[in-house]
Specification:
Two copies of one chain form a homodimer.
Chain A: H1 9-17, E1 25-29, E2 33-38, E3 49-54, E4 59-63, E5 69-74, E6 94-99, E7 107-108, E8 115-116, H2 121-127, E9 136-141, H3 152-164, E10 170-176, H4 182-192, E11 199-203, H5 216-229, E12 234-240, E13 247-252, E14 256-258, E15 267-269, E16 276-279, E17 282-285, E18 307-311, H6 319-326, E19 331-336, H7 347-355, E20 359-364, H8 377-384, E21 388-389, H9 395-407, H10 412-420
Parallel strand pairs in A: 6-9, 6-10, 10-11, 11-12, 18-19, 19-20, 20-21
Antiparallel strand pairs in A: 1-2, 1-5, 2-3, 3-4, 7-8, 12-13, 13-16, 14-15, 16-17
């Protein structure tokens, strides 16, 4: 966070003129006198106010024009922390930790209570000393973004970074990532890097890693252990499997979903058990599915975002399909109801989209279970209109797959072939 | 199903000219000779073919122009079934069963294998003779639609029908409904008829009620029992709670979601236990939440569909917001990521929507858990842009509530007040 975070225009001038920065404790004289800490503001705030956190805990906005006098009581000390790199142990394997941002790479700013994506991969490594006993871990910051701000172009950069390390001495790669869109990135890497010969673990945390209650340490330690000890390949999400600190799940990248806003065990494998569970220092393989297939590794690292996700609901105006056609989209992934339905009011425009050559795939907003469009009239009508049923593919995975398939095909016909093929266990057996 | 279901133009003329109908067994001479049953076609099929189901089980499309000769082997007999109304028992309370369609009101057509919404409420009552021992049940068919085809105007008709019976002798009302959009209708009735003084049970089934494996009977019997014996009020979804036939759950109408495409226990209460469980003939109340509040019953039965649901994902083009503004929508419900976020690329157009006076509410695509927009920068930015956090309201419930709140308000400001108020336990305590 910058020393004037969020301030601009008039209020920024006021701070600069008075040599003030966010975090300073000040006394301010207006009609009433106040004492408190200068708080950061947000990008879309006005430029008329300075915000103080009072001792009571309340924040108050003071109009700059009405401030008669301001006095610094104490100022922020800028500590320079030196990060000590752990010593290399020649008997241990090497891993790479790539940081993209998110809570796992965040620090709580104890002055302001805010959370910012500030920790570097090196700091992260140093925060969890247990890692040095598992592997020699090199670190690299790719970007520092909360995952809600990551885009398909970031997926591409992460995939390219990983791909560049496939022939290296790294036994596996940890990707520190925000949890908000972690499942989208996991799916994207699963398709782009299908049949990758090393294991990749996406790791996040629901509480920032410098807080005592953080889940970051266990997730990181488990991921490192998993990559080093488990003789597997592919893309996994490694996160808490329970609300306590005793079990971690390794979810297959195309079958995982964030199903709770805040719980440590928010991530779940849809339609089955996680691929691996780490418990009591043991790694247990789930025998239900065999996700990994041995084929040649041919990375295809392109994404085309001309894919729309349309969640159907009663009252949805079918004009949305016209908008999608006119905006130049090439594909639609429907989140239909039940076994994969959308209402009759949509049919006419769906037929139009088919005529215009768009790919249309059907998933279910139920999230769990198979799409099956031959049971009811509605489903059969939609099949006849050219919608492709996508079995039990998770809607978000289907969307990412469509962006990937479109990005690596010459045309929609080629894309359709890829969409129907089971590339990275996105259809479970 | 009509006797020429799906046929039109040239193929319809062919059937009529030859006195043929769907279900007839025929021999057809073309270049090759075929024998089989005439199958129905779907609305969007061409008019050039007649479809036969061969004895092998395969369907074949025969071009009408190439048929040299056709001969009827046997024709469909139209049985007229007489429905015997159960006798009235003066010692039992009265219930009303309103049928809207869906699988629970469906028959499998054994000739064609298709499922159609054909059973009347009276037939439904007669199919499950146990009902006559619980209550005297009057029946009424409101419409016969699969629920994927129901619209907010249907919600209004169901609500008006129920409202017209509130002062009657009925102890409660069963609404037979397709499962695809049952949760939307349950939410709509919960808002429109809040504080209704009688209990209402929406009942569906995942397998049609004339099949041995159907869950319809247990769901219907349980709903009738629940309405008669349980001294409660409000809108409930009454469906299997396990995959076996021993436990039924009564879910509160604003807290329920269909979470599996095909399982009998697809419906779940989000963020808690069902309001009631019926097991071993006993009704057990969940003490966790007290959904019902005693207030005056003032039905508000309007819905305004100018509400868009926008599910955020990486790569979503923010122009969708411009389209929503230009198309005249009054509100947007976001399905954000994690604690309630959308990416920075959306901010500019979100600010534009706010300026245009649209209501914007935030829910989470995680489905379970609280939206909390004060933890991270992104959340605080979005609060400053005017997005209203909707706590743990289920996204689909939030969408329905917004349509209801808009439909019963003079303007968006009034709507916003309703959106923040806990009307029908859509925010759980």
């Amino acid at each position: 966070m910058s020393s004037h975070s969020g301030y601009r225009g008039k209020s920024l001038s006021f701070l600069q003129k008075n040599n003030l920065q966010v975090g300073d404790i000040v006394s301010v004289a207006t009609d009433v006198d106040y004492s408190g800490m200068i708080m950061p503001r947000y990008e879309y705030s006005d430029d008329e106010h300075v915000v103080l956190k009072l001792k009571s805990g309340y924040n108050i906005g003071l109009e700059v024009d009405k401030i008669k006098k301001v006095k610094i009581e104490s100022t922020v000390e800028l500590k320079k922390e030196t990060i000590q790199q752990p010593q290399t142990n020649p008997n241990l394997p090497k891993l790479l930790l790539v940081s993209t941002g998110g809570t796992i790479a965040s620090k709580v700013d104890y002055r302001t209570g805010g959370v910012t994506p500030a920790l570097t991969a090196a700091e992260l490594n140093a925060t969890v000393p247990e890692l040095a006993e598992i592997a020699n871990i090199d670190t690299e910051v790719l970007f520092s973004e909360y995952s809600e701000n990551l885009l398909p172009e970031h997926w591409k950069k992460i995939a390219e970074k990983i791909n560049s390390c496939v022939q290296s001495e790294y036994k596996g790669i940890i990707v520190a990532h925000g949890t908000d869109t972690m499942q989208y990135t996991a799916a994207a890497l699963s398709f782009a890097l299908v049949n990758i010969p090393i294991p990749i673990a996406l790791v996040g945390s629901q509480r920032s890693s410098d807080r005592p209650s953080s889940d970051a340490a266990l997730n990181l330690i488990s991921a490192a252990k998993f990559l080093v000890e488990c003789d597997t390949t592919g893309i996994y999400v490694v996160m808490h499997n329970t609300t306590s600190d005793d079990e971690v799940a390794c979810h297959w990248g195309t079958r995982v979903r964030k199903n709770h806003t805040s719980k440590r065990n928010a991530f779940q494998t849809i339609g089955g058990l996680p691929a691996f569970i780490i418990k009591n220092d043991k790694i247990i393989k789930n025998q239900q599915f065999n996700y990994v297939r041995k084929r040649e590794y041919v990375p295809k690292i392109n994404f085309d975002t001309r894919v729309a996700l349309v969640k159907y609901y009663p009252g949805l105006d079918s004009s949305i399909i016209n908008y999608i056609i006119e905006a130049g989209y090439k594909a639609i992934i429907f989140e239909g109801t039940g076994l994969g339905h959308i209402g009759k009011t949509m049919y006419e425009n769906v037929a139009k989209a088919k005529k215009k050559g768009l790919f249309m795939g059907m998933t279910s907003q139920c999230i769990d279970g198979m799409v099956c469009m031959t049971v009811y009239e509605s489903g059969r009508d939609l099949l006849n209109l050219g919608i492709i049923p996508l079995a039990n593919m998770i809607p978000e995975t289907a969307l990412v797959k469509a962006m990937w398939a479109l990005g690596n095909s010459k045309n929609v016909q080629e894309m359709e072939v890829l969409m129907k093929e089971n590339i990275a266990s996105e259809f479970s057996d």
